[in-house]
Amino acid sequence: MRKFLIPAAAAVAVLATAASAAASPACTTAPKAKWLSEAQMKTKIAALGYTKIKVFQVSGSCYEIYAFNKAGKKAEVYFNPVTGAVVQNNED
Known about the structure:
- By secondary structure, the protein is an alpha+beta fold.
- The protein has one domain (25-91): Nuclear Transport Factor 2, Chain: A (Roll).
- Helix content is 35%, strand content 30%.
- The protein is built from two helices and four strands.
- Strands 1-2-3-4 form a four-stranded antiparallel β-sheet, with helices on one face.
- β2 and β3 (74-79) form a beta hairpin.
- The longest helix is centred in the N-terminal third of the chain and has 22 residues, at 2-23.
- Residues 8-89 form the PepSY domain.
- It holds the Pfam family PepSY_2.
- Residues 1-23 form the signal peptide.
- Keywords: Signal.
């Protein structure tokens, strides 16, 4: 029984690591002291045309939002918190 538990535990650890890595992209390695403030970032996001922001949060090394884009489509967007640039954009 023990010989089956070790490979199973290793497989679970690998899958858990892969799932958390896929959760959000790597946006920056800069310390949080260098990040734009939440207010500054929200101004940049609005200038890009995103509206009706339902969620604004820190996700790993990114700012992440759930909102609507200019075309009215739902979007999950990850931003570089230092520059405000879009790193990943997932639209419905």
